[in-house]
Amino acid sequence: MTPTFVVGHRNPDTDSICAAIGYARFLQATGRTEVEAARCGDVNARTEFVLEHAGLPAPRRLLHVRATAGGICRREVVTIRENAALAEVVHIMQKHELRSVPVVGETGSLCGIASLLRLLELVLPDLDDLAGNRRVEANLSKIATVLNGRFLCSMSPERDEVLVQMVGAMKARGFEEHMRAFPAEQLIIVCGNRPTVQELAIDYGVRCLIITGGYDLDPALLSRARENGVSVIISPWDTATTCLQIRSARGILPAIDRNISTVSEQEPIRNIRHLVQGGRQTLFPVVNHEGTMIGVFSRSDLARPDPIRLILVDHNELAQAVPGADEAQILEVIDHHRLGGSLISREPIRFINEPVGSTCTLIGRFYRQADLTPDRSTALCLVAGVIADTLTLTSPTTTEVDREVLRWLAETCDIDVDDFSEKFFAAGSVLEAYPPDQAVTMDCKEYTEGDWRFAVAQIEENGLDQFWERRASLDQALTELVSKNSYDFVCLMITDITRNNSLLLVSGNQQVIDVIDYSRRDDHLFELEAVVSRKKQLLPHLIHLLEGLNKFSPDEEPPANT
Predict the structure, then answer these.
(1) Taking the C-alpha atoms of 36, 37, 38 and 42 in order, what is their torsion angle to the nearest 10 degrees?
(2) β-strands 135-138, 161-167: how paired?
(3) Does the CA dihedral 205-208-210-216 come out positive or negative?
(4) Angstrom distance (rounded) from CA 417 to CA 407
(5) How many domains does the chain have?
(6) CA 113, CA 99: separation in Å to the nearest integer?
(7) Is residue 556 part of a domain?
(8) 183 and 38 both lie in a single domain
């Protein structure tokens, strides 16, 4: 069953990841067994601390959720060996109702594709090549196998060779003349209970004598066959059927199409549609990064690929969602932020967006409303999410619902909130643990407001010493982030959780920097007294400033004030 992923925003914080875990487990407890928690970014040090104490692994990481070749391919692949006999291959394809099948070598590596059309060419006679129609490239063991026959005697039955098939159905004299036109060591003579023909073939020393109809060979002739090095096979079929089956003992090498296209498992569907249009290849092997085949797909598989199903938590904007979310089927949104972005659903969905301090608060309330008690690991994760996003209930985003749910969750997992909170925030300094270019993207959200496209990152620290030590490199990292993503500007909010104050470092459009009206420390740095919430305090203020600002291109001079 294709999973439904519960996933938070890019560059996930603790609330985002813990909400995904908590809601996935809630849905599983209510019968949604296909639901799985996921993430679309690295786990920071504080979230690692939570997961370690909860005894849980980090959720699966999704690089994107676009429909890919790896997502639509059939993983249970029927293959055939390069050295297989035609009869064996046709039997396999009939059994599995296949028109094409991948061919692999002795080591299992992909060699090509065999199709029924190409295989048919091996058995249908070419009226312009009558001599070629007698040739059979096989070995005697394969011939005996496809005939369901038995050897009376055999000489080098596993040796692959080019053989010439002839039917002993004429008078002895005419047959002998006809037979001697071919080298004895290549001849397969097929005949019924005709001792005269059998004797002539044995005396000539043919490669193999095949007796049809299940008849045995006279003991004296069998002895002469051994003396002359003639292999003898008894076929249970009549002569016509035996001759047809012998042709199907040949190898499939001429029918293998080796000039084929393969597709990487990560290749988006939209990029490979042109590949399958036209041409005679109808089956496409899908390979991993090592070039190993992991599955196959056909043209019909591209018609209506099943979209990835998503439940978004802690965000509702596509700019913040896992890449490819616009191609996915979004089933639900559980969030506590402003409405924004271009999220559009094809069908009605469950959309819950409430002004509480943490998404984990909403998940905890779901448990209570359903009269379910989360296990300790889940409850601990939800506790951490509430603590992280409300700064232990001190943030201005905190509501009475947050307080009530946190109290209930803490009792459920039997922890002291203040003690756990102290350890949580001390678990890791982002500025100390990560280089500046990673630190500024650990919890970074992208926004679009009118013509403005920007990002706001937040780092919560126990004091600001690490910031002052890294101020210059953080400035450079923001400048590079603006350039890399073509943002108009980027803000980095460094929150001192011990004093409930923040600093704001800004890079990008000078118009924006000039109108920011927080207390200015220098050209790009501002002091935010009693501001700790990006969602409720900083972002609304930035949007208000942008609403009154006309955007000019970087090389365009704004009009002078009059």
Answers:
(1) -150
(2) antiparallel
(3) positive
(4) 8
(5) 4
(6) 10
(7) no
(8) no
* In a shared domain, residues 233 and 332: no
Question: Is there a single domain that holds both residue 272 and residue 363?
Answer: no
* Dihedrals phi, psi of 557, to nearest 5 degrees: -80, 130
81: domain CATH number is: 3.10.580.10
| Cβ count within 10 A of residue 232 | 24
Pairing of strands 161-167, 187-191: parallel
What is the DSSP-derived secondary structure letter of residue 305? Answer: P
Q: Are residues 331 and 420 in the same domain?
A: yes
Q: Cα(25)–Cα(162) distance, rounded to whole angstroms?
A: 64
| Interatomic CA distance for residues 200 and 191, integer angstroms | 12
> What CATH number is given to the structural domain containing 202?
3.40.1390.20
Q: What is the pLDDT of residues 190-234, one digit of tens each?
A: 999 999 999 999 999 999 999 999 999 999 999 999 999 999 999
Q: Which of 242, 201, 246 is nearest to 225 (CA)?
A: 201
Note whether 517 and 538 are within 8 A (CB): no
143 in a structural domain: no
Q: Residues 294, 73: contact at Cβ < 8 Å?
A: yes
Domain with 490, as residue range(s), is 430-547
Q: Within a domain: residue 560?
A: no
User: pLDDT by residue (tens digit) across 127-148?
Assistant: 565 555 678 888 999 999 999 9
Give the global pTM: 0.66
d(CA 51, CA 43): 10
Q: How many CA atoms lie within 13 A of 12 on its CB side?
A: 35
User: Do 268 and 338 have their domain in common?
Assistant: no
In angstroms, the CA 378 to CA 363 distance is 10
Domain boundary among 376, 396, 425: 425
The number of angstroms, rounded, from the C-alpha of 28 to the middle of its chain's C-alpha atoms is 23
Question: What single letter denotes the amino acid at residue 45?
Answer: A
272 vs 264: CA distance, rounded Å: 10
Q: Is 186 exposed, middle or buried (0-12, 13-18, 19+ CB in 10 A)?
A: middle
Which amino acid would we find at residue 521?
A: R
Closest CA to 501 of 514, 485, 519, 488: 519
Q: How far apart are CA 388 and CA 13, in angstroms?
A: 8
**Type of residue at 455:** A
Residue 561 is assigned to a structural domain of this protein: no
